[in-house]
## 1
Amino acid sequence: MEQVTFGVLGPVVAWDGGGDLLALKGPRHRAVLARLITARRRVVPLPRLVADLWVEPPRGAAGAVQTFVADLRRALEPHRPPRTPARLLVTEGPGYALRAEPDTVDAWRFETAVSDVAQLPPAQVVERLREALGWWRGPAYAEFAQEEWARGECSRLAELRLLAVERRAQARLDLGLASEAVPDLDAHLVEHPWREDAWRLLALALYRTGRQGDALAVLRRARTTLADQLGLDPGPQLRRLEADILAHSPLLDTPPGPVSTTARVWEQAASAYDRTVAAGARARLESTVGLLRNLAVTGGGGLEAAREHRLAAITAAEEFGDPDLTARVIGAYDVPAVWTRSDDAQQARRIVAAAERTLATLPARPSHDAARCRLLATIALEMRGSRSPRGPRAAREAEEIARRLDDPALLVFALNGVFMQSCTRAGLAPQRDAIGAELVAVAARHGLVTFEVLGHLVRVQARSALADFAAADEHAAAADRLAERHELPLAGVFTDWYRALKQAAAGRTAQAEAAYRAAAARLEGSGMPGVEQGLLPLALLSLRLTEGTPSALRAAQRMDPADDWGPYRPWGELFSLLRSGRRADVRAALHALPEPPADLLYEALSCLQAAVALEVGDQAALAQARTRLLPAAGQLAGAGSGLVTLGPVDRWLAAVTAALGRRPSGSPS
């Protein structure tokens, strides 16, 4: 029997032996599973399950629970022969029990990990807790956290999670990695300001990085916070730490013991750089951009921090009045980008303006061609999603220079710009596939790992659009392998979404919805608002329009009014108006609808327009949608994003073509 694993550190899910999400049907099915997991292999009587699932149980509640259990058994053991007893979700005495092994439930593994680190050396503690904290996908038992039967377990697991963060910080301090402990502790205290030990660890970490003033400020903040929120004075450990810092007590120094070679090299090199390179030196700016580039590919807070400081570095470079320096500072940030919508449109415009100013003042000599290429590639990247002709023109010019100079690093950067400008109309997946293939080939040949990962992700998108999921699977697996080996966590965000798309394309609606929700949970905090905003509602609506009864009105009725549609609001509002029955307003909104942005969701948004136009029989909107979708004939609508799909473009074209000249009753079937 394939081993099924269970996840409760976030939304309640289950995976089969191949790592694919199992379809657990509705919320009460998941509630039964979650309730049995909280029982820890013990039997939960049927009356208890009924009482836990309903405040006022309806007639037939016991029979409903039995149905939920039968459905769960089919999902958990799909290959069990008929009339043979279940081996995982068993009937015993008056109720049911889940006989999951200890290592198959993420919460149970997490508890073991937190307990086991007490016996491990600091380096292993850091690694073990890094892995264990990575299992969390959101609050424990997320959708059931307020249920009486889950509350105690949620509180216990939340406390263990906080303890794990603090134990990892202590282990980093023990290893001499004080600077690495600071960001996590800072974020930890924003959410949990009552944790006295976290205040102590943060102040100690700051002191050990030479920031005595900041350490004392943290202790003052702790005193104020504890007094204001809890009415308490700091405990003896915090008071003693403050006295020791003021006295420069040797007890606060890094304890003797093995310090990792990596940590030692980093600290020594950073210290030497600080002593040697003057604070106002131009070299510091270029070094800063190198650090930001490395920081950006770590994801989450690293990407946000890199984005935050990048513009400051460019501004500082311009103040020197040296176009060569500014060109190097702007062009050195060659961080691969796979999503064709900007995370910060205002910042992107300012970077483009700086690049254009620098191009205008850069000497027109062959010795500056490489710098010019990087500036043009930057413009192409930062103008992603816009319809200005400048973006494609800059991409072409950068590619021409890179090929002429025969520089692999320049070429992959320029090709990234070409990719970003390859969404000006529908149906361009074959061209993007060719770009991805060249990125993989050049980057692999010259050891440019981040661009090799980019190439694989581009090909995942393109092969999905072409319905070639066998090839897309290979590229997703290659991207995951490289990302794991080279610590590039953001790649996994996109491969997670791809696997959800694949479930949707196969018509496995329940599995796709669960996969989309899990992928969205991982996307939170990834530092990519341009990807995250509005994506989950868009994915779920797309799923509703392809799940077998794809009426736009029925899809609209299943939308959540509270959803934040972000940049996709004009298309989401069409369905909201449709649900309200205001058909005249729907037609007005259709006519006011902008052309979809020049990005990877062009076909998907065009299909949403078509779906609503079919519902209300709007001939002008139908004709417009048909014109926009025609170049993508033979492809899967939206799948070129690698994230969502609305099924074959040909099906939409057939429905729209048939509806032109007559009033339809619904969307394509």
## 2
Amino acid sequence: MSYDGSGEEEQPETEIIFEARRDSSSEEPPMSEWSSLIMKIEEENLKKKQYEQGLYDPGSGEICAAYVSQSDSAVLRHPYYNYPSIPDPGVINALLEPPPKKIYPSDGQEYYLAICKTTNQCPVRIFHRNLVHTHINLSYYEVNPNGVRAMAMALEKNTFVTHFDLTDNWLNDDACFHLGQMLGNNSTLTSLNLRGCRIGFSGIRRICEGLTTNRALRVLNVSHCQIGDEGLEQLAHVIMLLSDIYELDLSHNAISGKGCLHLAEALETQNKLTSINLSHNNLYSFQSGLCSVLELLGQNPEFEYLNLSWNSLSGQKIATSIRNVFQSKLLRHVDLNNNKLCDTPIITKLIAWFAKPKKMKCFDLSYNPLTLADAELVIHKFQQSKIQALNLEGVNVNKLFVDVLKTIQATRKDVVVSHGYVQGGFKSTGPDTRELVLNRIEYIGKKNKKRQVDIAVVILQFVKEKIMFLEPKDLNYKLKQLGVVLDDDLLNAVQELWPGEPTKKGAKTIAFKPLADYIKRKWPDRKAPPTPPPEPEPEPVAKKGKKKGK
């Protein structure tokens, strides 16, 4: 618009788009004349063009706060405040964070059931029930080796169980692996019994991996497990690494002197064993490893129990090594049965230090080839010691041994001594003839069932009637009157056993007084019938006199 000074303003030119009809008709114009269809407004969108050319990126689509006009009074009308965002229901944590761990009780019962459900194993009811007690006994239970994993995991954090017994359950390597994991983390279990589990060398190796860090286990039983010398080498390595095992059972494992060498090497570092069982193994007298073990065990003042039974031990060297064990003042039991210990010099060395242990309870030398002289040495040394029990079963002794034993038993009432046969100094005795004769007489008297006579009661009646002596023929005559007949040989045997005073004519008699005493000892319930009271005398009857006449 321009201004020329004439006082009149130029009117702007206007473009006529639609001119309404001047008629007052109320008819609607045709669709071709609608202004909305005729008008075409084209707006240029720069961002759209740039986006088509690839020069513009719309971004996240959120509104920038710089383009939103607001004042202090318009805060409540702000879209972010009026429509707040929905709080996260946990989707971010579920996607980015690991799921939270469930905390189970320390008894392990709920944890055991959860693991069994996860591994599709049937839970053992007795194990689940005893998780809150101190002892779990699954001996001879035929436990599934695959289920041992759940048991071991339940025992890892358990604070109740101290004794776990798996006797005679055949376990595979996987079960032994999980037991080893459990022993590495458990700090409550003090006793583990794997007797007869047949784990072998591979199994004991997996268990020892957990024992190297365990400081709670005190008792370990791996007997009948076929571990051999290699398995004992693994255990010796555990003992060397500051393990606190005090009682070790290694019986029935085919251990030889080679395995004992590894054990001796471990005992030189950590000599804590108080009980060891090496019975039923391949131990011989010429093996130096066993001698080294025995000498080291004797140096432990707290050693208590030694079992070397059912081996082939013999010789002076092994006897000297066993003697060193008696240096321990707390020694309680030494078992050497079924070996080859014999000869006087060997036995003399073996029992030389019998009197040193003051709390010794039992010494077993049963079924060793000891001579009579060796047995005498043992009983004399036993008399000087404080040992309570001496087992010499299968060892023959003489009368002097028995006499010394009677002297010991007269002064010490708590002594128990067992031995074999007694040779010499005794005469064999047969059955008591008196008992045989009376049993024969008893049988003849009661042979007739219709008329039984108790001859013992008859003899007691003779003594009651003061009949002290009778000839055999007179006794037979009296018995015939009662219906009993004895043969002459039996009557002569009675007369020889209980002889009486001869008659004036020199005939032999039977003494009823000693015979009645023996009958009372044999049959104390039999007594003579009581004497009936005398019958009263009849009263005299007065005679009636004749009546006098009037």
## 3
Amino acid sequence: MQWLSPHYLGFALIIPAILLLYLLKRKYENREVASILLWQQMLTELEVSRPFQKLRQNLLLFLQLLAALLIVLALLQPAWPTEDGAIARHTVLVLDSSGSMLAREGEFTRFESAKQEAKKVIEKLGPDQSITLIEAGKVPKVLLSDSSDQTALQDALDAVTVRPGTADSRAALSLAKAIASAEPDSGIIWIGDGGGEEIPAAESDAINLQSFRFVQAGTAAENVAIGTFATQKTAQGADGLLRIDNYGAKEKKGKVTIYDVNQQLLDAAPFELAPHGSHSAVFHSLPASPAYRAVIDVEQDGLQEDNELWSVPYLAEKGRSALVSPGGNRFLYEVLKIGGRFDVEQLNTAEAAAANPADVWVFDGVVPDKLPEGNVLLINPDRAVHWLPYKGKQQVASGWDVLDQASPLLQHVDWSQVHVDSIARLGQLAGMRGLIRTGEDNAVLAGTIDGRRVVIIAFDLHQSDLVLRPAFPIFMQNALTWLSPVQSLPIGGGHPGEPLEIPLTPGAVKRVLTLPDGTSEVLSAQGTSFVYAVPEQVGLYRLEEQQGEGKLTRYFSVQMREAESQIAPRRMHVAAGQAQAEQSEQAPQAAGSYQDLTFWLVLLALIIVFAEWRVYQRGY
């Protein structure tokens, strides 16, 4: 038992005051009577000089003492210690709001249950306790700091909504520990389903942390999700490949249905899944559509938000490539035509680049004064301009250093047997990074300049044997794919709450993006690439780009990460380090949480007072 307001103990004097009233003798008045024969006892009492009398059995006295005792106890605020409230004088309360918390168990989602647990902590907050409320989202957010106001804490908690995105549990824990370390006698309560990962305490520095409590949200593990949905345009329409994953321990049966962008039913097929197994479904000759929607229907499925997935087929349209090579370069012309992805136009001067936009500009031995609309492949630069710090030529005297073998431009490219006579020496270029280097100079660079993707080959192809090596066509196709993602691939799929690089069509004057919920926003972007902060919405996004009198419409899909489909809850273990253990031994005992009994005591006191009134009315 804990007394939360012991300073009200002085009110207990009301109990002896009531007793004193019953000990005092009654005061009598003089009256004339005809005879005193029947008043002998009264006379005896009048003759006694002591002002007090013995206590007699009196029901009213008992009820009044009991009511007074209950009122005094209520003022002292007795409370029982509990295990589901705050765990220290200052508690950092972390609430997981990631996609797996959308899993439904019974009538409520895990997130709704987690909020109820958080409300219990707030409701049982002691008078000298405070709470810092943190949302563990993609970026952890402090909602309310070091507050004892239960109403403000409840309002802040009610404003938190669950998201289909991921949660950065490590960052949230780091933030919570940093806040807890700033105040003595602090603890952390984490409410969630474990976030799919176990975080060792060794990742954080030792702090003065009194305790850590993990409140598990949810118990179910059965879930079926669409893992992958890819479509490819064909002469008859499109072919689709779908992978369905079973994350549970039970066999599952269901049906998958395919719709077009106008929600017209195109195809359907049943499927069966072994425990923790996968199923692949293939759909042929789907009617042409700019996007396709796959939906699965399965029983005993914990999470519904991963049962739907959009796919945008690979684009079949050709891009436009402009080759500016005054001396002519047959090798470049032929490699640009490989695969039939581009309509190639040959130009003789850099000034012609400003006439019409192209998806990819290839400058061979020519440096334009101004970068044109579109991505750029620059070969053998020979002069300096405001965007290119050219510093002359230098003979190649040493071998090659591959700086980034994982780059998409160097995939399957063997540069070791390439020989080059001389390369251009270039100064520092913001946004560009070297891929191949010889000595202190970069031979191949890639990056972004003024919002355009740029690849620079700093030597003359005619003064090297690169065009005779297998590395040449492979490298060129990698470079063209990276420079022209609009034509070679659809806009990549995104994830809610994360950045997504959107390739832009050169020459567009207005771009409008429509979200799955129907709202639209205008993109203020220049160049050929735009990094978009994807909102917390899954589904199909539509990008419309105005080009003169025409309009180009493209789509891309945003889906939950597969990790959120693994809804099996995991416990989060954060063990105290050695330094923490030493501090805990010396630190005072952390303040706990209590269930206040004041309400029930007041209610019982009112019942007693009502009973006393009824007893007095009946004359007992």
## 4
Amino acid sequence: MRSSSYSALPARTLRAVVVLAATAGLATAVPAAHAGPAHARPGTAHTVPAAHAEGPRTPQAVAAKPYMGWSSWSMQSSKYPGLNPDGDYSYLTEANVLKETDALAARLKPYGYSYVNIDAGWWRDKAWKPEFDAYARQKADPDRFPHGMKSVADHIHAKGLKAGIYLPVGLEKEAYGDGKTAIADAPGCTTADIVHGDLRTTNGWDSAYQLDFSRPCAQKYIDSQARLLADWGYDFLKLDGVGPGSGKSGDQYDNVADVAAWQKAIAATGRPIHLEISWSLDRGHVAAWRRYSNGWRIDTDVECYCNTLVSWENSVDDRFDDAPAWSRHTGPGGWNDLDSLDVGNGAMDGLTKAERQTYATLWAIAKSPLYTGDDLTRLDSYGLSLLTNREVIAVDQSAAPPARPVTPADDQQVWATGNPDGSYTVALFNLADAPAAVTADWAALGFTGKAAVRDPWNHENLGTYRNKVTEALPAHGSRLFTVTPHGSALTTTAYEAESPSNTLGGNASVAGCSACSGAHKVGNLYLGGTLRFNDIVVDKPGTYQVRVAYVSGDARSAAVSANGNGATPRKFPSTGDWGTVETVSVPVTLKAGANTITFDSGSSGYAPDIDRIDVPTSS
């Protein structure tokens, strides 16, 4: 079972950009010359950083762009031969951190990688027994870090890099003592004064007592921890096991107050410290994560806890399903974190070359922080080329919104986003276990005609393509393109789902929807519910890229058919909640004249709610 850092230990040592929904389109910032009516193309949606709508933030200067660097956890957690020769998680030592620091400075710093992040275990010995100072704060294990944590940070800074460190949320049980341990710079406060009287546990492993912030001493404890990290010179803190999320729910696992307390404590130190929270955070609390932190893990650990660092199935491929729901909530000051990017070590990574490129492509287009968990002292040539491709790094670091799927989330899918210069970043993915062709139709981007295509991975201009580009991809393969339109805006005809001319079947019904284009949608498409659009008129027969505006709090499927012909199941990515509209384009074969298009939940399935469809005026 995958979870986060503490979870893989034996039980006895268990450690402790918003897109306005009115148009529901592809987020972009195209010049006015490319823009069309709201229903005519998806590219007219406005992009607004979510922070503007969600209250005070930590300073954006700390996380103006997704951070880049290295983290120790992937190698600590792996059973790859030689990585942890002195037992599980023994890789984490001062010597290894300094070695990776020197390698990062020499090989990756010129490309923007700047953080060296020390993960869990720095205050625990190899049997996982912890060290604490006289004030219940974590203290460096003398065997792992004989010169202490300040010395390590000093070395990192001397290389022109930034130092990162790790803590679990809450008061670790071993730090409680008998409840009489004093809190630093807080006269009269002890560990008994900072937690709930019933010693309720918290975090993803129940390894700590939940802090009670109705008691002033609790904030003073966090203040003392933050001052210690600042005095040591750390620039980054990963706060782990945070809930709601991390596999837990309920009041005792609600750590929003902890994250807020950390933000307040960090601000009081006067040192700009990036606050990253982990792991698999609850999306329903995203406003709090954005308000109080600079980044949040959206998924479980990417590491496989096996004989390599990661594997495709466990759990690189999960991100394709999970990232779309978060895409609206990322931007300057706070970023969606997809976890470590382990593509540099060849066989040790546990992936094919195609999978390594696909992995790196998704991280870049999703605007995830780019931090690798590889051994930087033995990057292979292909891995180094992936980690140091300036054009792909620029995709991650650019001002464009994150990409999201513009086609259904089937085995073959296309993701895209609009760039400030009017071009598009477009990624083609074949997630199947066998080779397959993938096509990106310009109609799904909102234009027709010609476009110039560039391949950022290979730094190559591929020429001009008309209406689409098709690539044969290997299993789990991908291509990344920059597409610059030279055609015209796509013209479409909008058909509202709630129109009385449509036919509803089963439980399907019309419901209000403030985010929807007609303020209504058709929902209850489950267990045989159907929505049939009638009188869809086109002049010529052909395959049309029909753009479907829909609402779905989770990924759901619907069978799509035209004129009663064979239905094709299509998986619609989550829009993040039941009040947000997104679009994907679905190929539908239509005849000249009047047609019907049907969305069918199936006899045992649940389909998304449908807002409208936009049908191009030509195939």
